[in-house]
Amino acid sequence: MKKTSVVLTFFAAAALIGCGSTSDYTPPADASGEQIFSTACSECHKPLKGDVAMILSEKVANKDALKNKIQNGSMRMPAFKNIQGDAADRLADYLLANSEVK
């Protein structure tokens, strides 16, 4: 029983690794949305195929929701507080233009 508790605790902790974390990545002023995605996002979000960066849920398939998620993170995604203004717009535009919505 004790071994089961230890294993479950380990897996619960592993699932929450990104919770509450923040990335200090700051994109260059002239970085394109694709460059920002490649540098900041593709470590976890591997492009699905040549022209599809990721699959977005309908809930986040709009510019404001994407920028909010990028800047504030979520349960498993770190917040990217330094992706602001034009850089956040370029990244959101890239994701909307190059993702599937389901």
From TrEMBL:
Keywords: Heme, Iron, Metal-binding
Species this chain originates from: Nitrosomonas marina
MF (Gene Ontology): electron transfer activity; heme binding; metal ion binding
PROSITE patterns: CYTC (PS51007), PROKAR_LIPOPROTEIN (PS51257)
Protein's recorded name: Cytochrome c551
UniProt keyword RNA-binding, yes or no: no
Gene3D superfamilies cross-referenced by the UniProt entry: Cytochrome c-like domain
Keyword Chaperone attributed: no
Pfam family, one: Cytochrome_CBB3
Signal peptide: none
